[in-house]
Amino acid sequence: MTETVKALRIQLLKPSTTIGVQWYSLGLALLICMGLFGVIHGSSTPYTGRTTGALAAFYLSGVGVQPWLVNQLFPFSMALSVTRRAFIQATALLVLAEAVLAGLGLAALNQIEMHTHGWFVQMRLLNLPYVHQDSYFAQALVYGVPMMALTSVTAFLGAVFRVFGQVGLWAFSVGMAFLSAVVVAILVLTHSMGHVGHFFTTQPMLADFALYPLALVVLFGGGWAVLMLRSRA
């Protein structure tokens, strides 16, 4: 058994936590929304007004997985003689697999939603107007890549906490808030805010949701790998 496979098996000791929690959340959100829209099925609310934000439950429910892996399973893996490099490689494979599963799975559920006319109650949970793609695989990219980006960001935050502790995480948060404020101030003072917004709103949705989030994957994923290489066991 290679070191990477060993590390991957350790991370999958609790698949309900590492992979399943997002799907449990989505299933629960689906059932709740079906019940709510089933009750108002006979109302005059048009189909365009039956859009829900329940898809956010799928993404937000997984934000604690990577910090848990970094701060709980990483020391456990080190105790079992797994190298840092093997742990990083295994985590990267897991993140990629989660993104592929999220993309293909949500795209498949989106097809079911369309063919059942909104889960039989005329609601829009997955087939949202601002993420809709005609191609199945383009739709999978729109669903899957943001998952990878969000996972990369949360993994990086977990690594910051692992290496620098609570004070380091606080300092990073303050620094990011300050940098964001400076950027916004510059855009406002140069009257460029509207141009930036116009740029992204005129881009294809595939670019906004699948291409540009890859920059976050490279930035935060690379930072996470560097921090994990120097992390204490």
TrEMBL record:
Alphabetical UniProt keywords: Membrane, Transmembrane, Transmembrane helix
Key word Transmembrane present: yes
Transmembrane segments: 21-41, 53-74, 86-109, 136-160, 167-189, 209-229
Protein name: Uncharacterized protein
